[in-house]
Amino acid sequence: MKLPRLLYSFYEHRLARTLGPDELPRHVGVLVDGNRRWARQFGATTVEGHRAGARKIVEFLRWCHELDIRVVTLYILSTENLNRPPEELAALLQIITDLMGELRDEGIGRIQAVGALATLPRALQEQLACSAERTAANPGPHVNIAVGYGGRQEIVDAVREVFAEAGARGESLADTAASLSVQDISSHLYTRGQPDPDLLIRTSGEQRLSGFLMWQSAYSEFYFCEALWPDFRRVDFLRALRDYARRQRRFGG
């Protein structure tokens, strides 16, 4: 067993060395998918699968810190997930709450929650706010935790903010609609002020975005990985980055 591990470590190190700093994406988004399927294959509970997925998030952010990825967005809980059975949802929300505490104590990255946060339980809202405040000066990537998140809802919320601000300035709805621009929407998204994602990764073999960063991903590169999220390895991440580095980005061309 020692020889394969040594060869694996050598391959991983060699792969990392092929990636120049100017070839890496500034912003990586990840749909952390496959926790429940991972649990089923081991005869474990869904809750144990989500816990394994939370542990992988901590590990993944260490990799991003080592590679100097500037922004990471993790799709952890969608608005649809809030309709899961009460027992499963309660356990999942507690795991997310615990994860926020662990990331806060880990000291890697600056945490920002993105989503319809008012729909979340008060305890989780408070933990997210506390984590954001206490990690604001941390080194490492800016970490968006997409929780209670839906891409369509984000766009709706952005448009609402644009019109609400225009109304507060005394502008008419007709004038606001006539002058509405792409930049108006972009500047009111949950991720406002951040670069759009260069690379979106989805684990578990599914090849769809499920509403993740719908507006921001217009020119993103996509990478779909067969590994279930708890099984996602550093070498899988490096392969995704290598694939990204080899592509010629066209930005709509």
UniProtKB/TrEMBL annotation:
Active site: 33, 81
Needed cofactors: Mg(2+)
Residue sites binding Mg(2+) per the record: 33, 221
Swiss-Prot/TrEMBL GO biological process terms: polyprenol biosynthetic process
InterPro entries hit by this protein: UPP_synth-like, UPP_synth-like_CS, UPP_synth-like_sf
Binding positions (substrate): 34-38, 50, 78-80, 84, 202, 208-210
Assigned GO CC terms: plasma membrane
Cofactor note text: Binds 2 magnesium ions per subunit.
EC number in record: 2.5.1.-
PROSITE patterns, alphabetized: UPP_SYNTHASE
CDD domains found in the cross-reference section: Cis_IPPS (cd00475)
PANTHER family according to UniProt: DEHYDRODOLICHYL DIPHOSPHATE SYNTHASE COMPLEX SUBUNIT DHDDS, DEHYDRODOLICHYL DIPHOSPHATE SYNTHASE FAMILY MEMBER
Family: Belongs to the UPP synthase family. Z-FPP synthase subfamily.
Record note on quaternary structure: Homodimer.
Protein name as catalogued: Isoprenyl transferase
